[in-house]
From TrEMBL:
Annotated region (Disordered), positions in chain: 71-92
Official protein name in the record: 4-hydroxybenzoate decarboxylase
Domain of life: Bacteria
InterPro entries in UniProt: VdcD-like
Organism: Streptomyces hygroscopicus
Length: 92
C-alpha cells in the first residue's frame, strides 16, 4: 500500500461515527498499515483489517455505539494487582 493509499485519518469511526480519529502508530515496514483510534469511544483498528472492522458502512450493527451508549456504558474494571507466589500456592 503506498503512502497515498493509507487511510484517511479524518474518516468516521467504524463503531461510533465520530470524526476525531487519531493516528497512533505506523507499521514497521512503511506504508503497510496504520493503527488508528477514535477520540470518543476509544475503538482502535489497524487499517489492514477487513472492512467489517475498518469501515462504518460494513461494521456490524450490533456492535455500533451512539454517544448515549458511550455515556451510559459501565466503567471498565481496573486490572487487579498480580498475586504473589505465596497467594498462587495457597490458591492451588
Amino acid at each position: 500500500m503506498s503512502e497515498t493509499e493509507m487511510s484517511d485519518t479524518n474518516a468516521l469511526c467504524p463503531r461510533c461515527a465520530h470524526g476525531a480519529i487519531e493516528h497512533i502508530f505506523d507499521s514497521p515496514v512503511p506504508g503497510v498499515w496504520e493503527v488508528l483510534q477514535c477520540g470518543r469511544c476509544l475503538y482502535m483498528w489497524r487499517t489492514s483489517e477487513p472492512a467489517r472492522r475498518t469501515r462504518r458502512d460494513a461494521y456490524p450493527a450490533e456492535f455500533m455505539m451512539t454517544p448515549e451508549d458511550i455515556g451510559t456504558a459501565p466503567e471498565v474494571p481496573a486490572v487487579p494487582p498480580l498475586r504473589t507466589s505465596a497467594a498462587r500456592t495457597a490458591a492451588g
